[in-house]
Inverse folding.
């Protein structure tokens, strides 16, 4: 029976490969790709970029990946019912994508060589697996349902929905999650799930579909426009492109030149080449009434740095050192802070107290918390009244050692060069690993 199934699948892929050749021969883009430029984009009748926040499909009427090389346009995954979310390998020879062979099947992660051959299935998920990305180690990170996995291992452990976005040049994974209903926020995490933090701690506007440029800055969708963050200390800057209506992700061709999707007057998205220097838009795609989104340049690029994990899987806790809980980048009367409380969630999803401990005169505290569990911190005054409590949740991994500068201080703040008082008293953290301790 197994041999028969393998032969049937082989015949199927031969058939869809021939169908793909016929499609390529009959397809005409609005403009051929500029000399030397090859790119992939997702063609879809309807695109809803924030549908994942509600657990819905971003491509409710289907999607197909197209590869453009000069005057040649062809399907990347012929025969698939749906294909989207392309990511080119660092050598430019292969592409990861999410796809499904039938409309009833879950989305899976696939890989295919761009010079031909049958797609290879990477995941066998019981739920949708989408937005795959290459890691420099050769592993693949992707979103499964509402969490993020690396090579089949989960790395997110807090409630909410998550969506992979990009792998940064320093090896971190950029992802997005819902901050409040309908509003996305950008976060980063290392491939082993450690060091999760917001890209900016300013509770800014809606941010999603981000990419990091070679310059190090981030470009992303913000409402109906594109915006950028140029460094850890800068504020969000809206990009001045004609008429607005552009969305991410963008694909960088060269410094100051991108492929970008823009919303047309009739609601669909078209693909343009954008020059930031002279603010010039050149229309490239789309055929018929479909939308062209998710552009990806196919070319060799420098792999990010590999991240050497120091986790010890046999341990069940992580240590968190806060240098000064009395400082914050947003208004807070830190002088009244006397105690810190740490919460997790019980089986019903409600907050459950793990423990409490005094805050030292310099604002420092040192606690041990359970690994791979939702965590939330609350600061209280002498009467037990809440001074500041995190609105969301974070997590720590087994044996993770983490230091935070202060309460919601932002990634641009550097700590003072001194030993915190809590470590002068004891180098043993206060254990808060079980509910009720």
């Amino acid at each position: 029976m197994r041999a028969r199934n393998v032969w049937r699948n082989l015949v199927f892929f031969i058939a869809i490969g021939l169908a793909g050749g016929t499609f390529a021969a009959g397809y005409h883009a609005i403009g051929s790709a500029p000399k030397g430029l090859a790119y992939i984009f997702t063609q879809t009748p309807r695109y809803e970029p924030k549908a994942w926040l509600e657990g819905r499909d971003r491509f409710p009427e289907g999607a197909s990946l197209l590869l453009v090389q000069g005057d040649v346009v062809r399907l990347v995954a012929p025969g698939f019912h749906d294909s989207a979310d392309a990511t080119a390998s660092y050598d430019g020879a292969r592409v990861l994508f999410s796809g499904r062979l039938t409309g009833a099947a879950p989305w899976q992660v696939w890989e295919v060589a761009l010079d031909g051959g049958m797609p290879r299935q990477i995941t066998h998920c019981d739920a949708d697996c989408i937005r795959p990305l290459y890691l420099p180690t050769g592993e693949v990170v992707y979103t499964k349902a509402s969490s993020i996995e690396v090579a089949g291992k989960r790395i997110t452990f807090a409630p909410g929905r998550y969506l992979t976005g990009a792998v940064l040049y320093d090896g971190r994974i950029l992802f997005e999650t819902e901050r409040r209903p309908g509003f996305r926020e950008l976060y980063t995490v290392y491939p082993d799930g450690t060091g999760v933090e917001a890209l900016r701690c300013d509770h800014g506007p809606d941010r999603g579909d981000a990419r990091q440029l070679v310059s190090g800055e981030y470009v992303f969708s913000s409402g109906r426009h594109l915006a950028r963050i140029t460094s850890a200390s800068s504020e969000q800057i809206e990009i001045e492109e004609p008429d607005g209506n552009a969305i991410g992700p963008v694909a960088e061709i060269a410094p100051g030149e991108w492929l970008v999707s823009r919303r047309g007057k009739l609601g669909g998205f078209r693909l343009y080449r954008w020059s930031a220097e002279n603010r010039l838009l050149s229309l490239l795609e789309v055929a018929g009434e479909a939308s062209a989104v998710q552009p990806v340049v196919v070319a060799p690029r420098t792999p990010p740095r590999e991240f050497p994990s120091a986790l010890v899987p046999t341990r069940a806790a992580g240590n968190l050192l806060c240098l000064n809980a009395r400082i914050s980048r947003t208004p807070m009367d830190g002088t009244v802070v006397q105690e810190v409380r740490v919460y997790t969630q019980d089986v019903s999803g409600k907050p459950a107290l793990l423990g409490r401990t005094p805050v030292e005169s310099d604002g420092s505290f040192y606690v041990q918390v359970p690994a791979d569990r939702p965590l939330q911190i609350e600061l209280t005054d002498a009467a037990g009244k809440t001074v500041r409590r995190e609105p969301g949740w974070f997590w720590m991994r087994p044996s993770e050692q983490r230091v935070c500068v202060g309460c919601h201080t932002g990634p641009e703040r550097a700590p003072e060069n001194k030993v915190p008082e809590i470590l002068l008293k004891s180098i043993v953290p206060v254990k808060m690993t079980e509910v009720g301790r």
Remarks:
- The radius of gyration is 24 Å.
- The longest strand covers residues 246-254.
- The chain is about 5% helix and 40% strand.
- The mean pLDDT is 88.
